[in-house]
Design goal:
The complex is a heterodimer of chains A (378) and B (305). Chain A has 378 residues and is mainly α. Chain A has helices spanning 3-19, 21-41, 60-71, 84-93, 106-113, 127-155, 180-211, 214-217, 224-253, 262-286, 290-307, 320-326, 330-344, 352-372; strands at 49-55, 75-80, 98-102, 119-122. Chain A has two domains: 3-43 and 179-372, no CATH class; 49-155, abc type-2 transporter like fold (3-Layer(aba) Sandwich), CATH 3.40.1710.10. A four-stranded mixed beta sheet of chain A has the order 2-1-3-4, sandwiched between helices. In chain A, α2 (21-41) packs parallel to α9 and α10 (262-286) packs antiparallel against α13 (330-344). In chain A, 40% of the residues are buried. By secondary structure, chain B is an alpha/beta fold. Chain B folds into two domains: 2-217, P-loop containing nucleotide triphosphate hydrolases (Rossmann fold), CATH 3.40.50.300; 222-288, Protein-tyrosine phosphatase receptor IA-2 ectodomain (Alpha-Beta Plaits). Chain B has eleven helices and 14 strands. Chain B has helices at 39-46, 68-71, 90-100, 105-119, 134-146, 164-179, 191-196, 214-219, 233-240, 263-276, 291-299; strands at residues 2-10, 13-22, 28-32, 54-59, 62-63, 75-78, 152-156, 183-188, 199-204, 207-212, 224-229, 246-252, 255-260, 283-286. In chain B, the strands form three sheets. In chain B, strands 6-7-8-3-9-10 form a six-stranded mixed beta sheet, with helices on both faces. In chain B, α5 runs parallel beside α6 (164-179). Classes of the chains: A mainly alpha (378), B alpha/beta (305). At the A-B interface, α1 and α8 of A face β6 and α3 of B.
Chain lengths: 378, 305
C-alpha cells in the first residue's frame, strides 16, 4: 500500500462527494430527517387512550371513578354517552378505543357491601395496545377499589380486609420511567447509521463505472486495496460525524440517559461503521450502476436492520428459525450494544459477545470486499 | 511491444481473432478499421485491463497477460470514452494521475506546465473538466496520460470529435514524444491521421488484414487511381458503377476516385461513358492514392486476401 496513492484516492473522493449534491444530501440531511421522524414518530408507549364513558348512575362516586381514569394520564374521556347502543356505535366508528360502563346501582352496592362491579370493553383490533390498556385500567380500578374499601371500612368501624393480601412492589431497572423512547432511540441511531453508511459507499465504485472513469483508473498502477481504503476514508469521516450527531441528539435532545463509557461507544460504533461501509462497498463493486447499487444497498440494510435487529420487534419473541437468521444481521449486535451502553452503562467486558460478533463480521466483510474489486473490465 | 495470437470473444461474438503485432520503440503505430473491427478490444488487452482468451503480450519484456500490474507503470492508456473526472478541475485531475504514477511533486509541476502550454490549456487549470470542450477534454486526457513519461502510450481514437486546431496541438505533442523514444499505438478513424503514422495495421472483423508503412500500403494497392472531377459527383458515382475494367469506386466530396486496371486505356472510356449519360466530366486525371483509397481497396468487397 502506497500512502501517497492512498491519499490521492481519498482526496479525489472527498472532492467528488463535496461537489455531488446527491451524496452530500444523503450524508448530512438523511440522518437529521430520520432522527426527527423516527425519534418522534416511533413510540411504543400507550398514552391518552380515548375512552367512552357510559355512566348510568351519575353519582358523586361514579364521577370520582371516571375522574381517576383521566387523572392517571393513561386515558382521556372523549365521550359521555347516554345508552348502551351509543357505546357500540362509538366503538364501531373507532372514536374510542374502550368504554367504561358504570351500573346504575354502583354507589348503592358499594355502600351496602363494600364491593361493586364496573364493566370495561376494549377494541382489541390491535391486541398489543389493548393488552397494555387493560393493564392500565386494572391498575386504575385496583387503586380506586382499595380506597373505596378503606372508606367503607372506616364508615363501618372495621379494619380494611388486609389479611392474606400479597402486595406486588415493582421496581424497574435501567429505564426507570418506563419511557419507551429511551429504548427506541438507541435503535434508531443504529438504523440511521446502518442505512446512511451503506447508501454512501454503495455509490462510490458504481459512480466510476457509470461515468466511464473506471477504465482509466484501472490502467494505472493503483492497487485494489488502495482504491478500497482510499475511497472509504472520506465516508468514514462522514460516518464519524453522523454518529456523533445522532448520539448527541439522543442524549441532549431526546434526553436518553447515557450511563456507559464513551470509549465503549466509540469502539463499537467504529466496528459497526466498518461493517456497514464494507457492505455498501461490496454492493458497489458488484453492481455497476449508481441507482441499482443504492437500491440493493437499501434493501440489504433497511429490511434486516429495521425488522430483524430487535430495534422494534423483540428477537426473543421471534420463531426459532427467524431468531437464527437474526444472528446474521449486523445491526442486531449494535442495537444490543447501544441499548446496554446507554441504559445499563455496560462495559466492553459485559458486551464481549456482541462486540466479538461485530469484530468477526467486520473482519469478514473487509476481507471479502478487499478481494471483490478486480482491476479488469470483464 | 509485441502481441502474438490474441483472441477474445464476447459471448457468441469473436471480437478479436488471432492478432499478431510488433511495435518498435519510438514508433507511431496506427490501428485502422471500421467500427466493430476490434480496435478497442485490442487496445484494452494491450493496456492490461481486459484479459485475452488466448495469446501473449509483452511490453519491454513484461508479460502483460500474466502480470498486468507490472506493466501498468510503464504505459499510459487513454480510453475512447473520456476517462477523467468531470467533477474535478484540470489541475486536480493532473495531480490525481501524477500521484497514482508516483511522479514527484517538482516533476509534476514542471511537466504539467509544459504539457498544458503545449495543449493550450494553461488558462483552464481551475476549470472543471466537465466544462471543457470536446477537444480540450481529449487534450487534458493526453496531458494526464503523459504526466509520468510512459514507455508506451495507448490512445483509443484520441481525436474523434476534436476540432482541427486541437488535433494539430495533439499531434504536435505526439511528434514531440516520438523524438524522446516513446512508443505510441493509436487507433483512428481519420485517414489523414492514419497517414501520419509510421506504420499501419488495417483491421477487419477482428483480424489484421494488412500491416505496413502508409507508403508501402499505397504501393500495394492493386490497379491505378483516377480522379473524376465533375459538377455532379454523386450522379457520376452512380453512372460509373459497372464500367469496364473497374476495380473500385469511392465518392470523395466533389470528386469520384475510380480504381481501374489500366489508367491510360480506361480514362477515355470513362469520359465517353459519362458523356453518354449526359454528365459533363470536367476532368479525369491519375492521382496518388490517399490512405482512404488504400483502405477501401484492401478491406472492401473483392479485395485481395
Amino acid at each position: 500500500m502506497n500512502l501517497r496513492r492512498l491519499f490521492a484516492i481519498a482526496f479525489k473522493e472527498t472532492l467528488q462527494v463535496w461537489r455531488d449534491p446527491r451524496s452530500l444530501s444523503i450524508a448530512l440531511l438523511m440522518p437529521l430527517m430520520q432522527m426527527v421522524l423516527l425519534g418522534y414518530g416511533v413510540s411504543l408507549d400507550i398514552r391518552r387512550v380515548p375512552l367512552c364513558i357510559y355512566d348510568q348512575e351519575r353519582s358523586q362516586t361514579s364521577r370520582e371513578l371516571v375522574e381517576r381514569f383521566v387523572a392517571s394520564g393513561w386515558f382521556i374521556a372523549v365521550h359521555h354517552l347516554a345508552d348502551a347502543r351509543a357505546v357500540r356505535d362509538a366503538m364501531d366508528r373507532g372514536t374510542c378505543a374502550g368504554a367504561v360502563t358504570i351500573p346504575v346501582d354502583f354507589s348503592r352496592e358499594l355502600a351496602s357491601t363494600g364491593a361493586a362491579g364496573v364493566q370495561t370493553v376494549f377494541d382489541a383490533t390491535d391486541a398489543n395496545t389493548t393488552a397494555i390498556a387493560i393493564g392500565y385500567a386494572q391498575g386504575v380500578i385496583a387503586l380506586a377499589a382499595a380506597d373505596f374499601a378503606a372508606r367503607w371500612a372506616a364508615a363501618h368501624g372495621t379494619r380494611p380486609p388486609a389479611a392474606g393480601r400479597v402486595d406486588l412492589q415493582p421496581r424497574v431497572w435501567f429505564n426507570e420511567t418506563l419511557d419507551s423512547r429511551n429504548f427506541i432511540i438507541p435503535g434508531v441511531v443504529a438504523v440511521i447509521l446502518g442505512l446512511v453508511g451503506a447508501q454512501l459507499t454503495s455509490l462510490t465504485v458504481a459512480r466510476e463505472w457509470e461515468r466511464g472513469t473506471m477504465e482509466q483508473l484501472i490502467s494505472t498502477p493503483v492497487t485494489a486495496l488502495e482504491v478500497m481504503t482510499g475511497k472509504l476514508i472520506p465516508y468514514f469521516a462522514i460516518g464519524a460525524f453522523n454518529s456523533a450527531f445522532c448520539l448527541c441528539v439522543s442524549v441532549f435532545w431526546f434526553q436518553v440517559p447515557f450511563r456507559g463509557g464513551l470509549g465503549t461507544l466509540v469502539l463499537t460504533t467504529f466496528l459497526f461503521t466498518l461493517v456497514v461501509m464494507g457492505i455498501g462497498y461490496l454492493v458497489s463493486v458488484r453492481i455497476r450502476s449508481q441507482l441499482g447499487a443504492s437500491q440493493v444497498a437499501l434493501i440489504l440494510t433497511m429490511l434486516p436492520t429495521s425488522l430483524l435487529s430487535g430495534y422494534t420487534f423483540p428477537i426473543d419473541q421471534m420463531p426459532a428459525p427467524i431468531q437464527a437468521v437474526t444472528l446474521l444481521v449486523h445491526a442486531r449486535y449494535y442495537v444490543t450494544i447501544l441499548r446496554a451502553v446507554f441504559l445499563k452503562g455496560s462495559t466492553v467486558l459485559d458486551l464481549a459477545v456482541p462486540i466479538l460478533a461485530l469484530v468477526l463480521y467486520a473482519a469478514a466483510i473487509v476481507w471479502i470486499a478487499a478481494r471483490a474489486f478486480r482491476k479488469r473490465l470483464d | 511491444m509485441w502481441a502474438r495470437g490474441l483472441h477474445r470473444r464476447f459471448g457468441a461474438v469473436a471480437a478479436v481473432q488471432g492478432i499478431d503485432l510488433a511495435v518498435r520503440r519510438g514508433e507511431i503505430f496506427g490501428l485502422v478499421g471500421p467500427d466493430g473491427a476490434g480496435k478497442t478490444t485490442i487496445m484494452r488487452m494491450l493496456a492490461g485491463v481486459l484479459r485475452p482468451d488466448a495469446g501473449e503480450i509483452r511490453l519491454e519484456g513484461v508479460d502483460v497477460v500474466a502480470d498486468p500490474e507490472r506493466a501498468k507503470p510503464l504505459l499510459s492508456y487513454m480510453p475512447q470514452r473520456f476517462g477523467l473526472y468531470e467533477d474535478l478541475t484540470v489541475a486536480e485531475n493532473i495531480y490525481f494521475y501524477a500521484t497514482l504514477f508516483a511522479v514527484p511533486a517538482p516533476v509534476r509541476r514542471a511537466r504539467s506546465a509544459e504539457l498544458l502550454a503545449a495543449a493550450g490549456l494553461l488558462a483552464f487549470r481551475r476549470r472543471l473538466a466537465g466544462q471543457l470542450s470536446g477537444g480540450m477534454k481529449q487534450k487534458l486526457g493526453l496531458v494526464c496520460a503523459l504526466i509520468h513519461t510512459p514507455l508506451v502510450l495507448l490512445l483509443d481514437e484520441p481525436t474523434t470529435g476534436v476540432d482541427p486546431v486541437s488535433r494539430r496541438d495533439f499531434w504536435g505533442i505526439l511528434y514531440g514524444l516520438r523524438e524522446r523514444g516513446v512508443t505510441i499505438l493509436l487507433s483512428t478513424a481519420y485517414m489523414d491521421e492514419a497517414e501520419r503514422c509510421s506504420r499501419l495495421a488495417l483491421l477487419h472483423a477482428g483480424a489484421i488484414r494488412h500491416c505496413d508503412t502508409p507508403a508501402r500500403l499505397k504501393a500495394a494497392m492493386p490497379g491505378a487511381l483516377l480522379a473524376v472531377v465533375t459538377p455532379d459527383a454523386r450522379a457520376a458515382h452512380a453512372a460509373l458503377a459497372g464500367a469496364p475494367g473497374l476495380l473500385g469506386l469511392l465518392l470523395m466530396g466533389d470528386r469520384v476516385h475510380v480504381r481501374v486496371d489500366d489508367a491510360a486505356r480506361r480514362a477515355p472510356e470513362l469520359r465517353a461513358l459519362l458523356a453518354g449519360q449526359g454528365i459533363g466530366a470536367a476532368d479525369i486525371a491519375p492521382v496518388e492514392p490517399a490512405i482512404e483509397d488504400v483502405f477501401v481497396a484492401l478491406l472492401g468487397p473483392g479485395s485481395p486476401p
